Amino acid sequence: MTTILQINSAARSQGAQSTLLVNELTEKLQQSNPGAQVVTRNLQAEPLPHLDDAILGAFFTPAEQRTPEQQAIAARSEALIAELQAADVIVIGAPMYNFGISSQLKTYFDFIARAGITFQYTANGPEGLVTGKKVYVVTARGGKYHGTPHDSQTPYLKSFLGFLGMTDVSFIHAEGLAMGADAASAALASARQAIAAV
Ligand SMILES: Cc1cc2nc3c(=O)[nH]c(=O)nc-3n(C[C@H](O)[C@H](O)[C@H](O)COP(=O)(O)O)c2cc1C
């Protein structure tokens, strides 16, 4: 059975365009994978903390030497990694805020990037340990940046996901959402056309 992990990373709980579109993409994937199980990771409803001394201390202390507090922090990270590893298909909603991904998505990435668990360094360089996944990223942006040097998200997401082993990544962009009603409608229509073609 296919498991789809949908990651919502918008800061808004209501009306987020990235969430609207990833919901539609997940529905489409369910249609093409009847019986697929969907797991939703809502980073706005269940926010993760920023990296700090306590979190880094937990990650870098050997498991058998961790304090109870460090064990709880490491367990939270490892539960997110288990959820990710259990998925066959990963669908990420990625709004653009201030030329980057949301801080919600960044804290998630900080919790799933773990040396020896999701990546490792070998004599040949880094090796990602989250393999065999199909990833879809749906971006939502006020302006239009795809194909320009200002598209800070696409190369970053490809690098990060690829570093962890997720190299089969497809992007769907909803761009120009803040450029007037006509541009916003065209952005949603174009994203929906790409979703229909998945
Ligand atoms: C705090 C904030 C920062 C934003 N920064 C950018 C930006 O740097 N570039 C851009 O094109 N749009 C920017 N926008 C517009 C968003 O990309 C657009 O509203 C998009 O729909 C956000 O995704 P969401 O609807 O899923 O929250 C910003 C919006 C907000 C609320």
Structural overview:
The protein has 198 residues and is α/β, with parallel strands linked by helices. The protein has a single domain (3-196), classed as Flavodoxin domain (Rossmann fold, 3-Layer(aba) Sandwich), CATH 3.40.50. It has 6 helices and 7 strands. The strands form 2 sheets. It has a 5-stranded parallel β-sheet, sandwiched between helices. Strands 4-5 form a two-stranded antiparallel ribbon. Helix 1 runs parallel beside helix 6. It is globular, with a radius of gyration of 17 Å.
- The number of helices is 6
The fraction of residues assigned to DSSP E strands is: 15-25%
- In sequence order, what are the helices and strands, one letter per element? EHEHHEHEEEHEH
Question: End-to-end distance, in Å?
Answer: 19 Å
What is the highest CATH level, the class?
Alpha Beta
In total, how many domains does the architecture comprise?
Answer: 1
So, the CATH homologous superfamily? Flavodoxin domain
Mean pLDDT: 97
Characterize the main sheet. 5 strands, parallel
What is the structural class? alpha/beta
- CATH architecture, by name, is 3-Layer(aba) Sandwich
CATH fold-level name: Rossmann fold
The radius of gyration is: 17 Å
- Roughly what percent helix? 25-40%
Apparent shape: globular
Low-confidence stretches: none
Task: Please report the total strand number as a whole number.
Answer: 7
Strand line-up across the major sheet: 2-1-3-6-7
The hetero compounds bound to this protein are: flavin mononucleotide
